[in-house]
Design brief:
Blueprint lengths: L2 H17 L9 H8 L1 E5 L6 E6 L2 E6 L7 H16 L7 H6 L4 E3 L5 H14 L2 H11 L7 H8 L3 H10 L6
Parallel strand pairs: 1-3
Antiparallel strand pairs: 2-3, 2-4
Length: 171
């Protein structure tokens, strides 16, 4: 994914947060999904997560009932990325209307999966807030990844990857 695509996805995530008044760090992912017009469901047959159109709204399916675990938080944000980026929810009426029973699963390494991951990272850890929090938690120019992960309620791996993409640590 090129830098321009990444910036566009980050802008979209920030715009959605602004329009729907979603404060970061996000405390309750179920509340976010409801605010956006969706519902979270649990299905033990789902490995990670999936999203499906449901009338004018949507359903996110999780395999685990711990909605606010760091893994499920990222999965939910990832599925919200599919919702806006690939299904056109609330931003591309023609695309949204053409979506029938399409299901996006959080599996694989396609361009769409990478885009949904970028969206999830930007949605949970917006660049400006991440950089500000990184400055607050840094000591002697060393990032405190556990503190960043805890602040944004994400895994340490997600915080490391966001720090890499924002140029705070090298690949």
């Amino acid at each position: 994914m090129n830098i321009q695509m990444r910036k566009n996805i980050d802008r979209l995530a920030n715009t959605i947060q602004d329009i729907y008044h979603i404060n970061v760090p996000i405390q309750d992912m179920n509340e976010v999904v409801q605010t956006l017009g969706g519902k979270i469901n649990f299905d033990s047959n789902v490995i990670d997560g999936k999203i499906q159109k449901s009338g004018n709204g949507f359903n996110i399916f999780l395999g685990s009932q711990d909605v606010n675990s760091s893994r499920n938080r990222f999965t939910i944000a990832h599925e919200i990325g599919h919702l806006f980026l690939h299904m056109g929810y609330k931003i591309d009426l023609q695309r949204w209307e053409s979506v029938n029973e399409s299901v996006y699963n959080r599996l694989g390494f396609s361009a769409e999966e990478s885009q949904a991951n970028e969206f999830a990272a930007a949605f949970l850890m917006p660049d400006e807030q991440f950089l500000k929090q990184a400055e607050i938690t840094s000591a002697d120019s060393v990032l405190d990844i556990p503190a960043l992960a805890e602040y944004f309620h994400v895994s340490q791996l997600a915080a490391i990857n966001r720090a890499k993409y924002l140029g705070l640590i090298s690949w």
